[in-house]
Structure formats: structure tokens, C-alpha cells
Amino acid sequence: MSFRAACVQICSSDDPAENVRITSGLIREAAGKGAQFVGTPENTTLMAPDGGAKLEKSFTEERDPSLPKFRALAEELGIWLLIGSLAIRVSDAKTANRSYLIDPKGLIAARYDKIHLFDVDLPGGETYRESNTVAGGLRAVTAKTPWGTIGLSICYDIRFPQLYRAYGRAGCFLLTAPSAFTETTGKAHWHVLLRARAIENGAFVFAPAQGGTHANGRKTYGHSLIVSPWGEILAEAGTAPGIIVAEIDPALSANARAKIPSLRHDRDFDVE
Asked: CB within 8 A of 23, min separation 6: which ones?
């Protein structure tokens, strides 16, 4: 069964209510174009100036005001909705960077907490310490959909191919990677990383992204992508908010894996 998928690209601010309003409008636009599976980027409702500001505006899952709105929207539109990530308070000092897959009845089908946290010093003086205010996830998460099994991830995870190999071995035909890639790393690595994960595993890669200049002056790369199991770019955004749409045929994943059966050729080995 083929279906239509759409990535929502936004430039989130530090105003959660405004971010929900803008994102909801783009989700509606995507559904209006026939999308049955719609995804939003990492940090959908909040790109705060710093970790402290993010923590101050974050809630526990039970109290988060945006989640019921997105659940109701998915049910109203009758779509599968991937909220790329929300900052969910898990302690007095930290949040989880949590992705939600919501089914057409408005039920939460899966939750995924970002495993690999972005702690880096980039050329030009950019410094990020996600682990200062974020608790890393501990497990990979798959979810069943009417079209097959998908594997969930977030942004920096894309640099760790072993996660996606595990999803490939588990039979996932689609890998989600909602992101907020920096402009610097995006220009250098975004396309090649996403295409590589698709090719290695014979799976679609679905990557809604943040794009633009945010509250703290941070610039994200945009260029939301939908990539085929053969590594072809099926749809790509620019740098402005909007949506991209592509037809997804899960049979293409099986075809790619039959042509290049690398998942069956994996070997465990020791390094001396």
C-alpha cells in the first residue's frame, strides 16, 4: 500500500503557543494535500535562548499544553502525526527530547527519547551542551503502522549508523529523523548522512527540519528531506517554513534490500 507523506518545516521561536499555531496550520495544509503521514521537526514547540529558558517553559507529559492539541488534530484530520520532539520535563534539572507518534484516533502510538545528545564545539565558536539540560534516552523504539514498521530517531542520532542498522534488522521500512541541524553542520553533512542511512538499510528516511534564525541567534539549516531506499531525494524543502510531500511505496524498501542484501550479510567480529 502506497501512501502520501509530508514533512512540515518551521522556524520555532521561544513562544510555544505561536509555534503550535503555525505548526498546526501547516499540518492542516499537508493533510489537505492528501498526506496520511505528517511529521514536524525536533523542538517543534520551543527553541529557547538557552537550556535554562527551555526548562522554565517545559512541562511534564501530563501537563504539556501542546500534546492534547496535536492529538486532537491528528484525530480530526484522520492522519498519523509524528511530532518530531517536545521538551518534556523529567526532573527539576532536565527534560527529555521526546518524539511522539500519534495515530488517527489521537492515541499515542510510540514515544522516543533522543539517545545521542549534541555536545560539541564547532568551528567559529559555536558550542552546544545538550546533556546539561537533557536526559538521554536508553532504548530504540519501533512502531507499527498500516504500511509497516517504522524506526524513530532524532537529529544527532543520524550520525550513529548502528541505531539505524538495528532498525533495518528489525524490518523497518521507514526511518524518521526530525531535526534541528545547525547551518554549519547542515551544509557539510545533512544530505550525505540521510542518504547514507537510507542506502545502508534499504529504507525510506523521513526528516522534517527546523530552518531559519531562532530566539538565541542560532541558525538551523532547513532542507527537510524525504529519501528513498535507493538514496534518491524524493522531496526537499528550502530554508523557509512550509511543507514537502512525497509518495511512499513500502515495496521499494523490499526491492532495495533484494538488490543489495547487505542486511543479510552483516557479520559480528572482534577488533584486534
From this structure: 8, 10, 40, 44, 45
CATH code at position 169: 3.60.110.10
> How many other C-beta atoms can be found within 10 angstroms of the C-beta atom of residue 171?
15
265 is a domain residue: no
The total of structural domains in the chain comes to 1
From the list 7, 155, 172, 183, the catalytic residue is 155
What does the block give as the cell for 260? 543489495
Catalytic residue among 7, 54, 94, 114: 114
User: Is 272 among the domain residues?
Assistant: no
SS3 40: coil
Range of the domain at 76: 3-260
269 found inside a domain = no
The single-letter DSSP state of residue 204 is E
Reported pTM = 0.96
> Residues 11, 42, 94, 172: which is the catalytic one?
42
Q: What is the pLDDT of residues 63-106, one digit of tens each?
A: 999 999 999 999 999 999 999 999 999 999 999 999 999 999 99
